[in-house]
Task: structure prediction
Amino acid sequence: MGISSLFTLNVFWDGINIIDRLYTLSWTGTTAQINGFVDYFERKGGRKSFNWTPVGETTSYKWTCKEWFVSIISKTVSQITATLRQERDL
Result:
């Protein structure tokens, strides 16, 4: 699994600054395994959050995934790359 992270700054109209946490994750596996990820993300619909603990951390946070991309590597192997965004309660 490959992991990269991106932190962006959002300024809201009420003047509150919050740093958004985005992680781009990649998994390579059998086509069936990758289809399992696709099914999961589709069921969540980019709106329903899920718990995930970033690598190297001990606390689980709420995340959504609105973007993913599947690459076919061979007849039986695929890769999915997904961007997770941490959800925040304001």
User: Anything to note?
Assistant: The chain has one domain: 2-86. The domain at 2-86 is CATH 3.30.70 (Alpha-Beta Plaits). Confidence is low (pLDDT under 50) at residues 1-13.
